[in-house]
Amino acid sequence: MVKLESVIDLEVKDIEGDRLDCDDYVFVKLGEPVPVKPQDYSFNLQSPLPSQALAVSEQSQLIFVAHSDGFCVARTEAVIESAKEIKDKGSGSSIQELSVVDVPIANVRILALSTDSSTLAASVGSDVHFFYVRSLLNKKREPSFTRSLSGSSSVKDVRWRKKKDNSYVVLSSDGKLYHGAAEGPLKDVMDGVDAVEWSVKGNSIAVARKNTLSLLSSKFKERLRMSLSFKSWIDDSGVDCTVKVDSIRWVRPDCIVLGCFQLTADGKEESFMVQVIGSKEGKITENDCGRYLCFSRCKVAFWHILVYTI
User: Fold this and answer.
1) How do residues 109-130 score in pLDDT, each as one tens digit?
2) 11-25, 55-69, 192-206, 277-291: lowest mean pLDDT where?
3) What Cα–Cα distance (Å) separates residue 235 from each residue in 11, 298, 310?
4) What's the CA gap between 46 and 33, in Å, rounded?
């Protein structure tokens, strides 16, 4: 186990984000885009715009889409058929018209589906409403239960554990991290958190706090701490600024991706950067001290996509 007073300094390599063509994936466009609602609509600009407006269940063949007045649940096959109809005939049904249920809950910011596709979390302000998918399919529009944050903060992120125990973490806009499981209460576990993510198998948690990235056990015990470096980015900007980690994605056992904002002295978001932390040993754990590389300055990532329309 790593002593918490020892912080790992990452070996940083600056990369300007050159485009690398890849033919490993083929994206096939199915018909034409399907409107969410029959008529044009806009979100309430007085409230935060949705940060995660779409959730997809491959297991249940369902999509969940947020709109200005709530969210819709529709069968994937029906949406695909409508996309083809729009292409062939010039018109077709919207997702709202195809929906199994349309839930009236305004100002949804996040839709997050549990790993086993049994529960949908929908955040509104400081509340997280939980809907059982089986109840939605039975056209029940009320949440099965709701959990609320303390104080005046709002929900910034909801991350389900990548195991079938249906536990999750909620991050508030003022940096408080909460943990919940099933229908139990939320537990306040940490302050000063900028971003959070579960590991690929759900055994660990990555937490960004200021200029450090900590790896925690599933019991929220710190196992490893890395020092993040943004010096070259700040020096190149030529302005008085700071860098804040906004999001984390633990995409592979050996790779963590950080999305970072450059903030000016008055708190405005100036630009965005991606840092990729990789392990030389094929897996990021607390036992691989000093064996990490950090690839930075990937300001823009491009994929050269060949789209086939059918």
Assistant:
1) 999 999 999 999 999 999 999 9
2) 11-25
3) 18, 16, 49
4) 28
Most confident of 94-98, 236-240, 297-301: 94-98
Looking up tokens 């554990």, which residue turns up?
A: 161
Q: Report the distance separating Cα 260 and Cα 57, nearest Å.
A: 28
Q: What is the 3-state secondary structure (H, E, C) of the chain?
A: CCCCCCCEECEEEECCCCCCCCCCCCEEECCCCCCCCCCCCCCCCCCCCCCECEEEECCCCEEEEEECCEEEEEEHHHHHHHHHHHHHHCCCCCHHHHCCEEEECCCCCEEEECCCCCEEEEEECCEEEEEEHHHHHCCCCCCCEEEECCCCCCEEEEEECCCCCCEEEEEECCCCEEEEECCCCCEEEECCCCEEEECCCCCEEEEEECCEEEEEECCCCEEEEEECCCHHHHHHHCCCEEEEEEEEEEEECCEEEEEEEEEECCCCEEEEEEEEEEECCCCCCCCCCCCEEEEEEECCCCCCCCEEEC
Whole-model pTM: value is 0.85
pLDDT tops 50 at residue 303:
no
